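Dear colleagues,

As part of the handover before I leave the project, I'm documenting each prediction I ran so the next person doesn't have to rerun anything. This entry is a single chain, and its sequence is reproduced below.
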Amino acid sequence: MKALVYQGNGGKAWTTAPDPAVEGPRDAVIRVDTATICGTDLHILKGDVPEVKPGRILGHEAVGTVVDAGAATGLAEGDRVLASCISGCGSCDYCRRGRYGQCRNGGGWILGHLIDGVQAEYARIPFADLSTHRLPAEVPDEVAVLFADIMPTSYEVGVHNGRVRPGSVVAVVGAGPIGLAALLCSRLYSPSHLIAIDPAASRRVAADRIADSVVAPEDAEDELRRLGDGLGADVVIEAVGRPEAFELCTRLVRPGGHVANVGVHGAPAALHLESLWISDVTITTGLVDTWSTPELLRMLSGRLIDPADLVTHRFALTDMTEAYDLFADPASSGALKVTLTRT
């Protein structure tokens, strides 16, 4: 088969790779019908995730059709499934508490990280009884694939960890795919005001369809002072993964508020405890656990949430390297999420 293989030192190639096979009773092999690229994949290419070694097939978000399945998966050939970005054994202490991202028995974020991923013509999905979700026929592949990672990540690590509540003032720093998904998920809780912050004009335009106000980073503090009592946001969601974005979040949060860090950081960020210690600010970090994926898929079916507009570019799987180049340069391309589909 063909797959997108990490070459080391920022290199990647769409090249021949071994066909995957079922290795245990909880494995499934899927034909990848639709995949997408994540900002984390770009972090891998930049060297921010040293656990990923040359020769690894990248990717952790896909919709596919089961072609083979172990006896314990409950899946059958021909089933159309969402492959979650997180795998869980279901029996370790963390999995029993729904903390699948911290699985201690070979799960967690492994696809495209510690084992071969799904940016390929075929992929092996471990723990497929817990790590795949059958999809209704009416949900298009390119919408469903957004629920492999960015929707549960923004919901769990951003909105849920940040404790967005009805009436909250919510600021989202970064209006890329994760930030826009966080805006959509925040809307579920009826915030009193929803602010998107991004330096890129194209992303501010995208956020303007969801947020109540959209500003550049240099105007964010003034915007929050203008609102209500001027003390800041109840919840600030960091959706960039850069030191300056995190530090801005800590300036925007009100006393007693929450900063929910979602972005993947490749460099240290300053934590100004000299000013934060007295303000009862809660800062959370986290890897998605995907416990919310079934719930979010029900919201999609019930038309409570619809991230379809986040898909801006479409490619064939065979055009993987071209798609990567476009996705890596959003300032020029205006790319949010790109989908790659079997032709």
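The longest strand covers residues 28-36. Residues 142 and 219 are 35 Å apart (CA to CA).

All the best with the project,
I.
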